[in-house]
Amino acid sequence: MDGLVAPHGAGAGAVNARRGHSVCRACGHEGLLPFVNLGLSPLCESFIPPEAANQGEAFYPLDVRVCPACWLAQLGEYVPVQDIFTEYAYFSSYSKSWLQHAADYVEAMAGRLGLGPQSFVVEVASNDGYLLRNVVARGIPCLGIEPAANVAQAAEAAGVPTWVRFFGRGVAAELAAQDRRADLVAANNVLAQVPDLDDFVGGLALLLKPEGVLTLEFPHLLRLLAGNQFDTIYHEHFGYFSLGTVQRLLARHGLRVFDVEELWTHGGSLRVLACRAEAAWAETPAVARVLGDEADAGLDRAETYAAFGARVEETRYRLLELLIGLKRAGKRVAGYGAPGKGNTLLNYCGIRTDLLAFTVDRNPYKHGRLLPGTRIQIHPPDKIREERPDAILILPWNLKEEIMAQLDYVREWGCRFIIPIPRPEIVDPDAAQAGA
Q1: Cα–Cα distance measured from residue 324 to residue 178, given in angstroms and rounded to the nearest whole number
Q2: Which of 250, 120, 244 is CA-nearest to residue 197?
Q3: Sheet-wide strand order for 182-188
Q4: Closest by Cα among 77, 73, 84, 82 to 32
C-alpha cells in the first residue's frame, strides 16, 4: 500500500508535467476546471529530523482541478516522484485494523480465484509486506514490488520476496519475459500516487494472465465529496478517482471492470475487480449500482466540484474556532497520529504548536521528528499518559474507533477527543465507548 509509481513515460501524465497543470493525466484532455485550492503545503511525508529543525522547507501548491472529459480530479506534479518514494515514512503494519483488512482480502481472493501453490500473485506498492505475508503463509508464490528501499527491507525481513523498483510497462515486460504473469495483481491504494497513468495501467494489463484478475483499491471521490474529506488531498496523491473514471481508464488499456465493492477504508473506498476485456468474468450488478450512485451525486457535473471549496473553508473556520476556544480556556490539546492527511489539515488550517502542543504516533520511524510545515514534534504514544492533555485531536480520523479504544485510559483525567472531519466536533470518551 502507498508508494509505487513509475517515472514519467510518454503518456498523458508526462504531458501534464511538461505543460503544467492544464492537461488531464488520464485522458489527455486539455483544459481542466477548478475544484479546490488548499494553498501551499510541504510534502506530507517529509518529516523533519531534529537536526534540521532550523532549516527551511519547500512548499508547493495544493490546487486540485477536474477534467470535464473523464472527470478525474487531479493535482499537477510539482516534485519528481523519485524524490517522494525512494525513502518513505509510511509503514502499513502499524494499524491493527489495516492488517485485518489485508488478511480478509487475501482470504476472499484466494477463495474466489482458487489460488494455490500453482498460482502467482503480484502486489504493486507492497509496502512492508503487510498483505503478501498472508499470501506467503498460504504457500502461494508471490512477489512484491516497492520502490522505497527502507520499507521493502522490512518486507524481505518478513519473508516476502520484494523487488525494489518503480512499476510500469518495463517491470511488467521483464516479468512477462520470465513467464511470470500473474493470476492476481493487487494494486491497492497506489493508483492515486501514479503520475503517468498510461505507463502504469499499461503495465498492469501486460502483467495479467488471460483469465487473471486485477484489484484496485482507492479512496472513492464520491466519499471525499460527501464526507468533506479534503485532508486526503496531498502532493503524493496525484489523482482522485470515481468508478466511472477508472472504468474509462482501464478500458483504454484493454481491461474491463466486472465487480466493485464499497469499503470502509480511508473514509470510504472502492475495490474494483478487473480483467482482460475478452476474459470470461461476468459483470455483477454492483458495477451499475455504484455508477448510478455517482451519477445521482453529480460527479459528471462541473457545479458539483465548484461548490466543494466553500464547504472546505467553513470546516477550517470551525476547527480553528474550537481550538482557539480551548486555548483561551487554558486547555492543552495534543494530537494523535502523524498521517499524510493530518499534515494537509494542519497546514491548510494554519495550526502550529500554539494550538497543538505535540502529537504521538506508533511508528518508531517518526519518533523525535517534526511534522512538515507545522514543526509539531512527534512522540511515542506513552507521551499522552505522561502529559495528560485536556483534549486529543485525532488526525487519522478514519481510524477513530480503533484509536479511541487504544486511548480508553484518558478518561482517568477527563480528556476528550476532537474529530476534525467531516465536521469538527468534541467527543467525550464515555460517549464514544457507549456508541462502540
Answers
A1: 60
A2: 250
A3: 162-163, 142-145, 121-124, 182-188, 208-219, 269-276, 255-263
A4: 73
- Report how far residue 30's alpha carbon sits from residue 171's, in angstroms, rounded to the nearest whole number: 30
Query: Is residue 184 within 8 Å of residue 113, measured between CB atoms?
Result: yes
**What are residue 392's DSSP bridge partners?**
334, 417
CA pair distance 318, 350, nearest whole angstrom: 13
Q: How many CA atoms lie within 13 A of 391 on its CB side?
A: 23
What letter does residue 373 receive in the DSSP assignment? T
Would you say 133 and 11 are in contact if contact means Cβ atoms under 8 Å apart?
no
| Residues in contact with 261: Cβ distance below 8 Å, sequence separation at least 6, in sequence order | 270, 271, 273, 286
Mean per-residue pLDDT over the chain, rounded: 90
Cβ contacts of 232 within 8 Å, gap of 6 or more: 219, 224, 240, 266, 267, 341, 344
CA 148 – CA 164 distance, rounded (Å): 7
Q: Which residues of the chain have pLDDT under 50?
A: 1-19, 87-93, 434-436
Coil, strand or helix at 316: helix
Q: Are residues 361 and 399 in contact, defined by beta-carbon separation less than 8 angstroms?
A: no
Pairwise CA distance, residues 306 & 280, whole Å: 41
Residue 208 pairs in a beta bridge with 182
State pTM to two decimals: 0.85
Task: Say which residue the cell 464526507 belongs to.
Answer: 227
User: What pLDDT is attached to residue 115?
Assistant: 98
Q: Is 38 left (phi over 0), alpha (psi -120 to 50) or beta?
A: alpha
Q: Which three cell numbers stand for residue 125?
A: 506498492
Q: How far apart are CA 190 and CA 244, in angstroms?
A: 18
Strands (E), 44-96: 60-66, 73-74
DSSP 103-166: HHHHHHHHHHHT--TT--EEEES-TTSTTHHHHHHTT--EEEE-S-HHHHHHHHHTT--EE---
Grid cell 475544484 is found at 35
CA 277 to each of CA 22, 212, 421: distance values in angstroms, whole numbers, following the listed order? 31, 11, 39
Secondary-structure breakdown of the chain: helix, strand, coil percentages, each rounded to the nearest 5 = 40, 20, 40
Phi, psi torsion values for 408, nearest 5 degrees: -55, -30
**Among 270, 239, 235, 241, which Cα is nearest to 340's?**
235
- Structure confidence by residue, pLDDT tens digits, 295-325: 999 999 999 999 999 899 999 999 999 999 9
For residue 218, the one-letter residue type is F
What's the CA angle centered on 398, arms 109 and 90, to 5 degrees? 75
Tell me how many helices (H) and strands (E) the chain has. Answer: 16, 17
